[in-house]
From TrEMBL:
PANTHER family xref list: G2_M PHASE-SPECIFIC E3 UBIQUITIN-PROTEIN LIGASE, PHD FINGER PROTEIN
Gene: G2e3_0
Gene3D superfamilies: Hect, E3 ligase catalytic domain (3.30.2410.10), Hect, E3 ligase catalytic domains (3.90.1750.10), Zinc/RING finger domain, C3HC4 (zinc finger) (3.30.40.10)
Pathway the protein acts in: Protein modification; protein ubiquitination
Domain PHD-type: 1-115
Protein name listed in UniProt: G2E3 ligase
Record region (Disordered): 287-318
Origin species: Mionectes macconnelli (McConnell's flycatcher)
One matching Pfam family: zf-HC5HC2H
Length: 730
């Protein structure tokens, strides 16, 4: 540069460096703007941005006589404008010496002694906060490298961050990142030496930057698209024209696929319809509660829900649970018999459930509602699964490596139907293509993941940092396996911590970890020493003891008051729980995107939290009762059998049976728990003239014998289920 004599090409610091071969001239733009003896006497397209070449040469000659007060070399073209100040310097030298250059009005320059400073109130805290541009900590100190917002009390910035922001945003978009103030903020930043270019923002100048926004959504999202030419086919003015959702515009359908007669008809996607349905349900709550309160006759209310399958109550047996009526499907077009038509011995008055803990009961009810929502969402995702099968050869004794090999094989696709082939140590294969075998495989896999080195923590787990696993891309595979398990009918993990779940759904930058997230005992002890320090001296002593750890974590900060420990603890938690595992977390997120699971998690966080952060609900008589649909005629013997079934469930729950609910479910479906997506087909019960119960796992059907007494029914149930499961285990 002919003015500063330096070859540096750094547009952020010195402005654009321009070279004019015909004039044998190179100059930094900022050096030109701030030089004291030159003005723009030409038009914008003349010379160098309005500075005439002859004027530039005159300025170079003038500066050649002036010595820089900083580097002591000739060519100092910039002088301090303070009265009686004779200091001159080069622009780069002034930057290093923390001079202020005002890129406005007369383009004044101030030396290090006379530069303007920002005023600070005595009451303002001298702590630290986040720079809202780079999100790193910035000290609340009057320094050249730190600037305070004039419009927000607690907004502090790094000077370098502000300069980069100004260059990117331009004069039209550069404003306070906290309150969005423009005029007051720009005036103060110009006074303190921030250069704001008079041009549009960089993102506005990029060619075709918003081209994607101009493209209309052209895809049919209906579950069963009828168009033979594919979901993306769109033929205007025909039944294959794509109509977009009138509410969100991000979903579409062919007119024929939704039975729309014309393009003018309104159409809403499933997501928007569910939102409207919920809002209407909320607005109708008051009306329903009012109608309910008007029912003053308790007897009438009890008789409104007649059930021929009232639980059998043995004399003297005290029940602490009320079973609601199960789902019953009547065959041969016969209507259900009313409660009053049954014999008096089969009628049992309904009693209110014993509410030992109302809050716990409400929480469990809320979780059940959320799990039902997840079930419906997963069923939508399962539409992607086709009939093409992929067989995985699984060794139950080496579940992880055999599963990893299967998921990485060339012909594996998450959208294919999965068949499991379990092999034993003697290399004898037992092929089982049922859902039971698949569920058992995913159950073993989830259990292995929970106890693997990929996660850390006791019950609620976070991701750990395993460099070998990162190298082998195992975090991606783990996320993929969990997504596939959810959609293909396997169990949910149920061991995610709230912090891990929030990182996946909302992004790690929006999550604040807590001490319980730290699994490392030494790190947890270090944090506790700092957190519970009760004096400044004890706090400084604790910091001194773990100085190397804090330095390695990048958490060192000046401590001047006891309250500073809170920010230090927060820094350590963010580093150890989030920043340290940011690479595994991103890989894990990519794996969870399989089959669209992560996207649904982000759309329905509350619902998915119920299956990813909580263990499945413990099976109860009520759960089993609601799970099974009873296929029955109006035959009095079958009604009697239904009563025996209900009474048996109560005996199991009260511990009067050697069989558990898990045993019953395993006997019928091959699974000891209810998958997040539910069972397919749904479990059913049939009463047949057979000697012993039969669990048909292919149809998830429990075939029960018709007996004369309850004791016969109970004995046959326990004998069959115990022996069947014992043989299977052996």
């Amino acid at each position: 540069c002919v003015l500063c004599g330096q070859t540096d090409d750094c547009p952020e610091k010195y402005g654009e460096k321009k070279t004019f071969v015909e004039y044998n001239l190179t100059v930094h733009y900022y050096c030109l703007l701030m030089s004291s003896g030159i003005w723009q006497r030409g038009e914008e397209d003349e010379g160098v941005d309005g500075f005439l070449i002859t004027d530039i040469r005159k300025e170079v000659n003038r500066a050649a006589k002036l010595k820089c007060n900083i580097c002591k070399k000739k060519g100092a073209s910039i002088g301090c404008v303070a009265p009686k100040c004779k200091r001159s310097y080069h622009f780069p030298c002034g930057i290093k010496r923390e001079c202020i250059f005002q890129f406005m009005e007369d383009f004044r320059s101030y030396c290090w002694e006379h530069k303007p400073v920002q005023t600070y109130m005595d009451k303002e805290s001298r702590g630290a906060s986040q720079c809202t541009i780079c999100l790193d900590l910035v000290e609340h100190l009057p320094a050249y490298t730190i600037l305070k917002s004039p419009c927000c009390k607690n907004a502090w910035f790094h000077r370098e961050c502000l300069q980069y922001q100004a260059l990117s945003a331009g004069i039209f978009f550069f404003r306070c990142t906290v309150c969005n103030n423009k005029d007051k903020f720009q005036t103060e930043m110009l006074r303190m030496g921030i250069y704001i270019p008079e041009r549009d923002a960089s993102w506005e100048l990029e060619e075709n930057a918003y081209e994607d926004l101009l493209q209309c959504y052209q895809h049919c999202d209906i579950r069963r698209c009828l168009c033979k030419k594919g979901r993306d086919y769109n033929e205007p003015d025909s039944k294959w024209e794509i109509k977009r959702c009138q509410c969100c515009g991000s979903r579409g359908t062919h007119l024929a696929c939704s039975s729309l007669k014309s393009w003018e008809q309104n159409w809403e996607c499933i997501e928007c319809r569910s939102i409207f349905a919920k809002s209407e349900k909320y607005s109708g709550k008051k009306k329903r509660s009012l109608a309910t309160s008007e029912k003053t006759d308790g007897t009438t209310c009890l008789m409104e829900e007649p059930s021929p399958k009232t639980p059998r109550q043995s004399s003297g047996s005290q029940r602490n649970f009320l079973l609601q009526s199960p789902k019953i499907m009547y065959q041969n077009n016969l209507s259900p018999r009313s409660h009053l038509e049954l014999p008096a011995s089969n009628r049992v008055m309904s009693l209110s459930p014993l509410m030992l803990n109302r809050n716990w009961s409400l929480r469990q009810k809320h979780l059940r509602e959320q799990r039902k929502e997840v079930c419906n969402i997963l069923k939508e995702l399962k539409v992607q699964v086709n009939t093409k099968t992929t067989r995985l050869n699984i060794n139950a004794d080496d579940i992880w490596n055999s599963a990893l090999k299967g998921f990485r094989q060339r012909n594996f696709s998450p959208t294919n139907t999965i068949e499991i082939n379990f092999t034993n140590c003697k290399n004898r294969a037992k092929t089982d293509t049922s859902a039971a075998s698949k569920h058992h495989f995913f159950q073993l896999l989830m259990l292995h993941l929970q106890n693997s080195s990929l996660f850390e923590g006791s019950s609620a787990k976070n991701l750990s940092l395993d460099f070998q696993a990162v190298k082998e891309n195992l975090y991606f595979e783990a996320g993929k396996m969990i997504a596939v398990s959810l959609v293909h009918g396997g169990p949910s993990p149920g061991f995610f911590s709230k912090t891990l779940f929030d990182c996946l759904v909302y992004g790690p930058e929006n999550v604040k970890p807590v001490l319980e997230d730290v699994a490392d005992v030494d790190v947890a002890q270090t944090i506790k020493m700092i957190k519970y320090a009760n004096s400044l001296s004890s706090l400084q002593s604790a910091i001194h003891d773990c100085y190397e750890f804090l330095a390695a974590a990048g958490c060192l900060r000046p401590i001047t008051a006891l309250c500073d420990k809170n920010m230090l603890v927060n820094d350590i938690l963010i580093h150890h729980v989030i920043k340290r595992i940011i690479s595994p977390l991103e890989s894990f997120r990519q794996g969870l995107k399989t089959l669209g699971v992560l996207e649904k998690m982000q759309m329905h966080p509350d619902a998915f939290s119920s299956v990813l952060c909580h263990k499945p609900e413990r099976l109860s008589a009520e759960t089993i009762c609601d799970l099974f649909t009873i296929h029955s005629t109006s035959d009095i013997k079958e009604v009697k059998g239904a009563n025996f079934w209900m009474g048996y469930l109560q005996d199991v729950e009260s511990g009067e049976s050697v069989v558990t609910f898990e045993d019953i479910l395993l006997f019928v479906t091959g699974s000891s728990s209810v998958p997040s997506i539910g069972f397919n087909p749904e479990p059913t019960i049939k009463f047949l003239r057979i000697r012993y119960p039969i669990g048909n796992r292919l149809l998830n059907c429990l075939e029960l014998p018709i007996t004369n007494t309850y004791q016969q029914f109970k004995n046959k149930m326990e004998l069959t289920i115990r022996n069947t499961l014992r043989v299977e285990r052996e």
